[in-house]
Amino acid sequence: MSVTLPRIDLDKVASLIREVAAVEILPRFRNLREGDTRQKSPGDFVTIADESAEIALTPRLIGLLPGSVVVGEEATAKDPNVMNALAGDAPVWVVDPIDGTGNFAGGKEGFVSMLALIQGDDILASWIYHPVSGEMTIAEQGGGVVIDGRSIKRFAPASAPRGVLAYGSRGVPGIAALVDKRRDRLTQVKSSRAAGIDYVRMAKGEIDFTFFSGIMPWDHAPGAMIIRELGGHIAYIRADETYRPSMALSASGILSATSRDTWRDVHEKLFGEG
Questions:
Q1: Residues 6 or more apart in contact with residue 75 via CB below 8 angstroms
Q2: Cβ atoms within 10 A of the Cβ of 195, count?
């Protein structure tokens, strides 16, 4: 389904993300105090920077697009019903204030701020910002992908695909064990431990596929927009289900690749019957 992009200034959204990162995120990088970090669940960290950035973004995003709603990672952790807005008619901002919170909390630079604009379960635009380097990636439905003002070429065929396998406790039971058993069938590159960074690596031609067992929309909707705009393929692993953000509570894993052929090849090696 194709939906017309609501009237929105992409650069204005990018400026807002930069401003919030400058105020709420960067001052706390490598400067977290005792009690500023906690685990929502085993291995799933949240910091005061995540929460403060999401709180700062929410009213300003709604102000940019009246009638829109915000689905944020931290708000959803407190009230899972927030996710219901994804399949509704109103424009939805999907917010991940810090993707790669574990890296951020550990003083490592591998984290980004991510945002996607969705309507009718269709991704219309996305932003991935690296606060430390200042790199901004913007993707727009039908408008391609731009990194720091430079248009990115569509994906070229990969003769020897290599990519990232990111799996663990997240996702359906058994999937991690299956991938672990079959991972040697593929050429792998170490994960950045931040989905947004790995999707940007695909845009830059550094990797050709990614698999994630975790499927929450704030982790993948921004990257899905990039993959689609560059001619790649992204889908849930069960029967090649088209990626839709609202399916995050029922799907089983997300595989993306620079082409449908590469997607099928990787899928067969990981999840085929052989």
A1: 54, 58, 82
A2: 28
Give the CA dihedral 45, 134, 224, 83, nearest 10 degrees.
40
pLDDT at 128 (0 to 100): 98
pTM (2 d.p.): 0.94
CB 186, CB 269: distance < 8 Å? yes
Tokens of 66: 């009246």
- 163 forms beta bridges with 188, 209
- Here the tokens at position 271 are 């999840």
Is 1's pLDDT higher than 50? no
Residues 6+ apart with CB under 8 A from 137: 127, 128, 129, 145, 146, 147, 200, 203, 226
What does the pLDDT read at residue 3?
Answer: 53
Structure tokens at 142: 């039908």
Whether 57 and 34 have beta carbons less than 8 Å apart is answered as no
How is residue 9 annotated by DSSP?
-
State which amino acid sits at residue 32: L
Q: What is the pLDDT of residues 126-166, one digit of tens each?
A: 999 999 999 999 999 999 999 999 999 999 988 899 999 99
Domains and CATH numbers, the chain: 10-151 (3.30.540.10), 162-271 (3.40.190.80)
Tokens of 210: 């990614």
